[in-house]
Amino acid sequence: MSSQLALAVRDSSTMLRRNLLHARRYPSLTLNLLLTPVMLLLLFVYVFGGAMSGGLGRSAYVTYLVPGILMMTIGSTVIGTAVSMATDMNEGIVARFRTMAIHRGSVLFGRVAGSVLQSVASVVLVGAVGVAIGFRSHDATALEWLAAFGLLALVALALTWIAVGMGLGSPNAEAASNAAMPLILLPMISSAFVPLHSMPGWFQPIAQYQPFTPAIETLRGLLLGTHIGNNWWIALLWCLGLTVLGHRWSRAQYDRDPK
Amino acid sequence: MTGLAIAANGLRKSYGDKTVLDGIDLAVPSGTVFALLGPNGAGKTTAVKILSTLVRPDAGRVTVGGHDLAAAPQRVRAAIGVTGQFSAVDGLITGTENMLLMADLHHLPKAEGRRVAAELLARFDLTDAADKPASTYSGGMKRRLDIAMTLVGGPRIIFLDEPTTGLDPRSRHGMWQIVRELVADGTTVFLTTQYLEEADQLADRIAVLHDGVIAAEGTAEELKRLVPGGHVRLRFTDPAAYRAAATALTEAATDDDALTLAVPSDGSQRALRSVLDRLDAAGAEAEELTVHTPDLDDVFFALTGAPAVPAQSTATTARTATAGTATAAEENAR
Questions:
Q1: In terms of pLDDT, which residue wins out, A196 or B267?
Q2: Interface pTM (ipTM) of the complex?
Q3: What does the radius of gyration of chain A's CA atoms come to, in whole angstroms?
Q4: What is the DSSP letter of A46?
Q5: Does B273 lie at the interface with A, CB-CB under 8 angstroms?
Q6: Partner-chain contact B56 A101, CB within 8 Å
Q7: CA B96, B99, B102: angle at the middle one, nearest 5?
């Protein structure tokens, strides 16, 4: 059993190295995915900011916006995960891996580990842009910063597994990109850009309980000291549920005989 | 254990209601080259996918390298190397990085991995391109890198699915040389091909796969014997001469559109003279005469029922060929 675990760790880290090599060799692939959240951040702060913030002022709106943009960054990064997973499946290289005496799940584990690392790096980059245009967290303790990072990593893990499942289920890269679209569209209808109470009443429950809003509200609470309420455990439940679901879905698809 | 590298009994596989493999048996002795020959869509790739653990069969017992495919797939995987029809290289990274990836997955120590990678890249003439991304390689280079990657773990049994499809003649001959070297090292090679010449050149034993069943199996010589005799082909330009000759040579298969006759013949001087004498007696003069000795093409077409060559009038063991003979006889009777 322990030798099985050693095999899993060893082969998964080989696969992780391969994915990180891709990311390092072709940084434009990763950076392109950051364009959407960064553009939206700048657009909403400098163009729509005046109308959106409702007289709050630009710096207050930047502070409101950044936590949501960080979550959206994860959604955007994992679209790349879905695309590269689908590409891998079509390239024949995964067929080669399947005929080798390696740990069966290592292809997926390596992909997920790489994608989570990529997401965290992306969050740091986009976060830096946020700080550059005026985002400040005044009273967050070291523990709260740690918890914020932990939350971002958990969201990245959950969304990555879902994206891997989408990539495996798509016949090609284009289809994978389309399938993963909701991961960047969902933040649009969350509390990322405007507070829930400004939305129509019938829509508020949808916006409130979809995965992004509780995560964004928890992040805001940790970094800005706003009220977290029950958002933290709803966010954790979402992360746990999506991770388990995405993992099972991905494994089932991967174990199925290829066409 | 047994001297068989690959043994399959009653292998079946269907996708939906389309039966791809309808109970095939295979026996490949260790250290030999076995060719699975068949037209596109015959089920060759499916057979390779099953034998290489990629796809599970619906029924049938298979052992590869002495290990049961269903019970111990990981042991089978440890014994084999697979080069599929579509290149299984990572185009985004370099040739060397592809090789080192394989070395890592085979758990070779770092230094040994580097040595094996460099050796194989040199052996397959890829040293100059080793540090370029594999996506920039030509078709032949990709195929060579693919095989080099397959060899990293030193597999005892290698599957090559249509290794030369899409390659230019020079690359194809290079690939044949590679296969010969592998066998010289004692490796068992299972290859699929749609080229008869390739099977004839490389394989110790050949199985012809057609419509999901093995239509014939044996050495190239044995298969050629399945279609006895060659034929003399006579081409006419004058329809009257053609009709006269067809009347005189009753055993010939006729092709009224092309004005050609195919007279069964072993190609000997005596047989040729007999044909010529009967043509003279009928007063028919052929525009062109060619002697066709049997090769694997005849076997292939006879077994798979392709109409390119007129069927022999002598009875053969092949089912489809018998049908061809009947129509030829009917035409002769007219």
A1: A196
A2: 0.89
A3: 19
A4: I
A5: no
A6: no
A7: 150
* Contact at CB, A99 and B54, closer than 8 angstroms: yes
Are A97 and B77 inside 8 Å of each other by CB?
no
Hey, is the C-beta of B80 within 8 angstroms of any chain A C-beta? yes
pLDDT digits (tens, 9 = 90+) for B51-89: 999 999 999 999 999 999 999 999 999 999 999 877 789
Enumerate the β-bridge partners of residue B35.
B191, B206
Q: Is B54 on the interface with A (CB under 8 A)?
A: yes
Tokens 């030829």 locate to: B328
How many residues are given for chain B?
A: 334
pLDDT < 70: residue spans in chain A: 1, 53, 259
Quick check: B78 and A22 CB within 8 A?
A: no
Q: Using alpha carbons only, what angle is made at residue A95 by residues A94 and A97, rounded to the nearest 5 degrees?
A: 60
Residue from A10, A25, A100 to probe the interface with B (highest B Cβ count within 10 Å): A100
B106: three-class secondary structure by DSSP: coil
Nearest CA in chain A to B89: A93
Max avg pLDDT among A234-248, B2-16, B76-90, B247-261: A234-248
Question: For residue B295, what is the DSSP state?
Answer: -
Query: Chain B contacts of A98, Cβ < 8 Å?
Result: 53-54
Q: Given this model, what pLDDT does residue B224 score?
A: 77
**Residues of B81-101 as b/e, b for ≥16 C-beta within 10 angstroms?**
bbbbbbbbbbebbbbbbbbbb
- In this complex, is the C-beta atom of A93 within 8 Å of any C-beta atom belonging to chain B? yes
What is the rounded distance in angstroms from the CA atom of residue A227 to the CA atom of residue A212? Answer: 16
b/e per residue, A83-118, with b = 16+ CB within 10 A? bbbbbbbbbbbbbbbbbbbbbbbbbbbbbbbbbbbb
Report d(CA B331, CA B247) in Å as an integer.
11
Residues 6+ apart with CB under 8 A from B221: none
Best of B56, B85, B92 to disrupt the A interface by mutation (most A CBs within 10 Å)? B92
**The pLDDT value given to residue B308:** 40
